[in-house]
Amino acid sequence: MNRLLSAIAFAAHKHRDQRRKDLVASPYINHPIGLANVLANEAGIEDERVLIAAVLHDTIEDTETTELELVREFGKEVTDIVMEVTDDKTLSKADRKRLQIEHAGTISRRAKVVKLADKICNLRDIANSPPADWSLGRKQEYFDWAKAVVDGLRGVHPALEHIFDETYKLRP
Ligand code: NDP
Ligand code: ZN
C-alpha cells in the first residue's frame, strides 16, 4: 500500500502539468489511476508490481522521467514492466502502432496485463470522453487497432480480456 501510494504521488507530480485530450482536458493522472483501478477492482489483481507499473506506465513516454530514476525509486522489476509498455518516441506514429501489434505477444505477462488495462481505459475514454477533434473514422480506427494489439497477447488473464471484449462493444 505504501509503495503504491508513493507511485501515485510520483506519477501525479510527473504528470502535474499535463491534461488528457478530452473536451474538458481532464487531469492526466486520472488515466494511470484508472488503469490501477480496473486492474485491482474489476479484475481482482493484487500483484503490487503490476499495480505500481500501471500507475507509472506513461511516465517515461510522456514526461522527462528516466529509466534510472524509476529503478532507484521503485526497483528493476517495476521499471522493466514500464519499459515494456513504453513506445520508442524516436519512431514515427505509424511505426509505433505497428510495433505494438507485432510485440504484444512477446512482452512479459505482467506487461501484457498493464497493456490490456491501458487499452480498456483508452477505449472507454474514446467512447465516453473522446479527444475533441476526432472523427468517427478515427475513433473506429483506434478501437480496431487496440483490438489488434490485444488479440496478439490473449491467454494471459481471461477476466481482463473479457472486460476488454465488453469494452470493445462500445465501438462507435
Ligand atoms: P494519438 O496517439 O495521437 O492519440 C491516442 C492516444 O492519446 C491514446 O492512446 C492515449 O494514449 C491518449 N489519450 C489522451 N486523452 C485521451 C482520450 N480522451 N481518449 C483516448 N485517448 C486519449 O492518436 P492515434 O492513436 O490515433 O495515433 C495517430 C494515428 O492516427 C496516426 O498513425 C494516423 O494513422 C491516424 N490518424 C487517423 C485519422 C483519421 O481520421 N482516421 C486522422 C489523423 C490520424 P496514452 O494512454 O499513452 O496517454
Ligand atoms: Zn496510457
**Uncertain stretches:** none
The helix count comes to 10
Report helical residue fraction: 55-70%
Rough shape? Answer: globular
The CATH homologous superfamily corresponds to Hypothetical protein af1432
CATH architecture: Orthogonal Bundle
The number of domains is 1
CATH class: Mainly Alpha
Mean pLDDT equals 98
Structural class: mainly alpha
**Distance between the ends:** 37 Å
Cα gyration radius (Å): 15 Å
Strand content: under 5%
Q: Can you offer a commentary on this structure?
A:
The protein has 172 residues and is an all-alpha fold. The mean pLDDT is 98. The chain is built from ten helices and no strands. The protein is 66% helix and 0% strand. The longest helix is centred in the C-terminal third of the chain and has 20 residues, at 109-128. The chain is globular. Bound molecules: NADPH dihydro-nicotinamide-adenine-dinucleotide phosphate and zinc ion. Residues 20-22, 31, 58, 93-94, 97, 118, 122, 125-126, 129-131, 135, 137-138, 141-142 line the site of NADPH dihydro-nicotinamide-adenine-dinucleotide phosphate. NADPH dihydro-nicotinamide-adenine-dinucleotide phosphate binds next to helix 7, helix 8 and helix 9.
